[in-house]
Amino acid sequence: MRIERVIGLKKVIPVTLSFALFGVVLAGCSTGNDVKGEQTAAPQVQKKMKLSYLNQNFDKTVKDSYAIKYVENKFNVDIEQLPRSKDNYKDELLLKVASGEIPDVWVDLGFPEYEKLVNQGAVAEIPQEMIEKNAPHYWAWLKKHLGDDPLKLYKRDGKNYSMPIIQTLGPDRTVVGLRKDWLDQVGITKNPETLEEFEDALRKFRNNDPDKNGKKDTYGWTGQAVGVKDIFSPVFGAFGVYPGTFTDKDGKIVRGEIEPGAKQALTLLNKWYKEELLDPEFVLNKGQNVDDKIISSKAGIVTASWYQFITKAAFFDGKYYDKLRVNVPNANWVLTAGPKGPDGQQGTVQLNPIASSGGQFGKHMENDKEKMAKYLQVADATAFDAETFENIVYGEKGKTYKKGEKGDYSYLPPYDKEEEQIKFGIGQQYTFLGKSFNDYDFQTPYMTLNELMSLRKASEHIGKGKYDIMQPIAIPAYNENIDALDQLTLKTYIDIITGQRPASDFDKYVEEWKKAGGSKVMAEAQKKYEENFKK
């Protein structure tokens, strides 16, 4: 479950002082006299380290939790979990680094930020042999999915600075969910497939009172516009384009937001917006707003990960199913890859398995290899060791959970309720870096009840679309220009969808995009594409 991300904070220590302190640690043991007066070596006391992690689900953690105590005792460490913003993580981290408050460890920055911090000298080298020695299960997992040289895309000038995090679910994770109970309520008996059928559903979800509360207070499709990829991506996919991504088309790199198909998608979205079929607040929405509107039955179509539309017991999360059914017991979903366009194309922007730059250590950790090794050891165990994983997520066998005859893991009452798990201090919310290393084969017995395996299998490979193939590749021109280009795209797309600008202005936007650095970006991306993928 790709859910929690981690970070440890530490003020930078001057290098000379850091070496001095490290030397003291390695100075060895003192001597003493035994009862016979003979000089003997005093017992060496293992240094107890403090490991810190910033947790985006901190509100669901408790001090001195069962999970934290288990890890502390197992590895002779002190664990600190700190609150982390869900929306401003990147900016928070970069600000800390800029101010000299470099963390011990962080994860999930994009590659542009990775390049920046490596070039600034803020990131520690992580030798391959250190990973192999201290995190052998993790290393085997990397090689299984990335090949014999799993660090090659992360190395800079021959040195590795990252612990790769790969999302093996990424390429088909995102789907479109439609409220099946709403389709039934408004008299739609065939699951929508085409753009026209989706439009019919949108119109009836808006006008035919699908929740039967006597009010016209529902919309067809909700979403957000935080990034270019977020804006009703499946509608663009119906026209064969994927905004915010580099994709391969006939041997050349293209960028979805400036492709002709995007103009067709924007024209249709503007039609739907004028007819009030789209949530008008999509411009302001963030993730939590979208969640609230779906769970409170304010919209009937949304784009999300497939596992959010089925019960948590079948895989993970399940918020659009379990939470929705608290108030609407018969709520259910139809999952689709998205509407089919005029040429039968469909899909949405998917996730590159190499979705981020992975995890990094702060530069000062180069002088504290012992602590770096400890972080790696904890990561390896919390992600790949069954006993450790079970204690963190499930707690105490016979008290908080049981293992069934078929190998299923289930919480015992009252710990089958999330609030009781939180009080006891167990669950997926506890982060120890390695919880980002998701081996879904290893995690299967913990994630899916045997009786729900068929539901999981029927849901997990519905998604279609394309992902950004250039995401792991350093493209300096992209790093320099993408923020301005994305802001231009967001403003133009929102203006066209909401009617502030006509769709005919799309061609002007494309020219403006190219002049604002886009042409340079595309030329450099093509060069990097040929260097990395066409050898």
Salient structural properties:
535 residues, alpha+beta, 4-stranded mixed sheet, 3-stranded antiparallel sheet, Bact_solute-bd_prot1, Extracellular solute-binding protein, signal
Q: What do you see in this structure?
A:
- This protein is α+β, with helices and mostly antiparallel strands and 535 residues long.
- 39% of the residues lie in helices and 14% in strands.
- The chain has 19 helices and 19 strands.
- A 4-stranded mixed beta sheet has the order 10-13-9-14.
- Strand 11 and strand 12 form a beta hairpin.
- It comes from Paenibacillus violae.
- Keywords: Signal.
- InterPro entries: Bact_solute-bd_prot1.
- This is Extracellular solute-binding protein.
Can you lay out the helices and strands and say which pair or pack?
Blueprint: E1 7-9, H1 15-25, E2 31-33, E3 39-41, E4 49-55, H2 66-75, E5 77-83, H3 89-98, E6 103-107, H4 111-119, H5 128-134, H6 136-146, E7 155-156, E8 159-160, E9 174-179, H7 180-185, H8 195-207, E10 219-221, H9 233-237, E11 246-249, E12 252-255, H10 260-274, H11 287-295, E13 299-305, H12 319-327, E14 333-336, E15 348-349, E16 359-361, H13 369-384, H14 386-393, E17 401-403, E18 409-411, H15 418-424, H16 440-447, H17 453-459, E19 465-466, H18 476-497, H19 506-533
Parallel strand pairs: 4-5, 10-13, 15-19
Antiparallel strand pairs: 1-6, 2-3, 6-16, 7-8, 9-13, 9-14, 11-12, 17-18
Helix pairs in contact: 2-14, 5-6, 13-14, 18-19
InterPro entries: Bact_solute-bd_prot1
Organism: Paenibacillus violae
Protein name: Extracellular solute-binding protein
